[in-house]
Write a structure and sequence with these properties.
Pfam families: Aldedh (PF00171). InterPro entries: Ald_DH/histidinol_DH, Ald_DH_C, Ald_DH_N, Aldehyde_DH_dom, Aldehyde_DH_Superfamily, ALDH_KGSADH. This is Aldehyde dehydrogenase family protein. GO terms for molecular function: oxidoreductase activity, acting on the aldehyde or oxo group of donors, NAD or NADP as acceptor. By secondary structure, the protein is α/β, with parallel strands linked by helices. The protein has 2 domains: 254 residues, Aldehyde Dehydrogenase, Chain A, domain 1 (3-Layer(aba) Sandwich), CATH 3.40.605; 171 residues, Aldehyde Dehydrogenase, Chain A, domain 2, CATH 3.40.309.10. Helix content is 36%, strand content 21%. The protein has a 7-stranded mixed sheet, sandwiched between helices. A 5-stranded mixed sheet has the order 19-4-3-20-21, with no helix packed on it. Strand 8, helix 8 and strand 9 form a beta-alpha-beta unit. Helix 1 packs across helix 7, helix 2 runs antiparallel to helix 4 and helix 2 packs across helix 6. The radius of gyration is 24 Å and the shape is globular. The model has no long low-confidence stretch (mean pLDDT 97).
């Protein structure tokens, strides 16, 4: 059985949920696959209407949902209300994507017999994967990266049915959200839900599953990849894994603003963000160091989402204990509470201890690395693993030349004078990066997240009457297309 727990006390709460056995997984995936046949053929405009209905349903239940999630996560009303709004917003964004139509990347090359050899009529567009998408819910976002999260929204938008493996950290919230979403969809079978670790293994190995999305740890991602490798037919795996999100503070950066922003970003949500600033390079000097100490000492810890996550944080802090403790916040309250901690070392010592010292410590912990000259940073930045984000703080763009080129190869999102926590849901957002931050170059947030669940099809000399609407000469859907090499908006 799967039980919810209160992170503040560690006590079991709510109803018990049975683990989904192999037969149950097969039944849920099979039902989703059957519903998906109709869903794939549903016009994009109708799918957009369905996504907006889901968004409206989630927003209408916000009072109930935030309270239920708070019992299982202790994330608080403000954070959870905002997350429900973000989750509904993701569905609305993908409704816009569908109505725009550019996501299919329609291309038409008319026949040209004058070429040698003659060119046939070729037309290409992206279409939904023919099968079920498996989604593994994340612990740290019970709405935005869970049952109704971005993976689910983008896959449904693409035309794919979804089966979610619920996270054990919020099983009750998962069940309730799934019910709300199902009631808003044309068929409830378009969204399935399974509970339990073995159910996750059965899900990703089910022959009806054609792709998988995951947000979690490197170890968890590798375990899913091993299961996929055992399949008779391989499938793509889109995983968002570990990230330290380096921050480079250059000499011209304002001291007090940097220190305050760092402390706030580090401890937001008890540091349980994939974009947490786990590593910061700062110029030597007492002023910035003292400001960081003051800012961090003014913070407080809090309960982690699960006992296992709390234990992982404590293990990470123990590993970082070989460095010097620079500052720590006030202890948090609760059985699973932790204390924010910031360690420090110089750039030479840090480089000697790579790569182990730069492994992610999930929670409110970070390393402040001091340097004497900006030129020292290039070699150490080259040795960092990939991250979701990289940040530069400076008031003089000219002084950033030593680091920007390297950071551009090390992260999927580059930030200037800001902080990585907080990922805007918009058309241009990219939430991914080089390994181990992600398994592919695709994004899990933003309009182009839909690309993961699409595959291109080319039609050669195909009869006009049999072509998809998106590829007919008259362009009945009025979507952007490239025709004979020219982009037509």
């Amino acid at each position: 059985m799967i039980y919810g727990h209160d992170p503040r006390t560690g006590e079991t709460i709510g109803a018990a949920f049975p683990e989904t056995d192999s037969a149950g997984v097969d039944s849920i995936v099979s039902a989703a696959a059957a519903a998906g046949t109709t869903w794939r053929a549903t016009p994009a405009a109708e799918r957009a209407n369905a996504l907006e209905a889901v968004a409206d349903a989630l927003a209408a239940h916000v009072d109930e949902l935030w309270q239920l999630a708070d019992q299982e996560t202790a994330l608080g009303e403000v954070r959870l209300r905002g997350e429900v709004a973000r989750t509904a917003g993701q569905f609305r964004l993908f409704a816009q994507v569908l109505r725009d139509g550019g996501y299919v990347e329609a291309i038409i090359d008319h026949a040209d017999p004058s070429l040698a050899p003659p060119r046939p009529d070729v037309r290409r567009m992206k279409r939904p994967l023919a099968g079920v998408v498996a989604v593994f819910a994340a612990s740290n976002f019970p709405f935005a990266f869970s049952v109704a999260g971005g993976d689910t929204a983008s896959a449904l938008a693409a035309g794919c049915p979804v089966v979610v493996k619920a996270h054990p950290g919020h099983p009750g919230t998962s069940e309730r959200v799934a019910k709300i979403v199902r009631e808003a969809l044309p068929s409830p079978d378009l969204l399935g839900l399974v509970q339990g670790m073995q159910a996750g293994a059965d899900l990703v190995q089910h022959p009806g599953v054609v792709a998988a999305g995951f947000t979690g740890s490197v170890a968890g991602g590798k375990a899913i990849q091993r299961l996929i490798d055992e399949r008779e037919v391989p499938i793509p795996f889109y995983g968002e894994l570990g990230s330290v999100n380096p921050v480079v503070v250059l000499p011209s950066a304002p001291v007090k603003e940097v220190a305050a922003g760092f402390a706030g970003s580090l401890t937001l949500g008890v540091g349980q963000f994939c974009t947490n600033p786990g590593l910061m390079f700062v110029p030597e000097g007492d002023e910035l160091r003292d400001a960081i100490v003051e800012a961090v000492e003014g913070t407080s810890g809090g309960p982690m989402l699960a006992e296992r996550i709390r234990d992982g944080y404590l293990g990470g802090v123990e590993r970082l204990g070989e460095l010097r403790l620079l500052a720590e916040g006030k202890p948090g309250e609760g059985s699973w509470a932790v204390t924010p901690k910031v360690f420090t070392t110089d750039v030479s010592t840090f480089e000697e201890k790579l790569p182990r010292v730069a492994e992610e410590c999930f929670g409110p912990a970070s390393i402040v690395v001091t340097y004497r000259d900006v030129a020292e940073l290039r070699s150490v930045l080259e040795r960092l693993e990939g991250s979701l984000t990289a940040t530069v703080h400076s008031t003089d763009p000219d002084e950033a030349g030593e680091v920007t080129e390297v950071l551009g190869r090390k992260a999927g999102r580059l930030i200037w004078n800001g902080w990585p926590t907080g990922v805007a849901v918009c058309w241009a957002m990219h939430h991914g990066g080089p390994w181990p931050s992600a398994t592919t170059s695709y994004t899990s947030v933003g309009a182009t997240a839909i690309d993961r669940w699409l595959a291109p099809t080319a039609y050669q000399d195909w009869p006009e009457s049999l072509l998809p609407e998106e590829l007919k000469d008259a362009n009945p859907l009025s979507i952007p297309r490239r025709v004979d090499g020219r982009l037509q908006a």
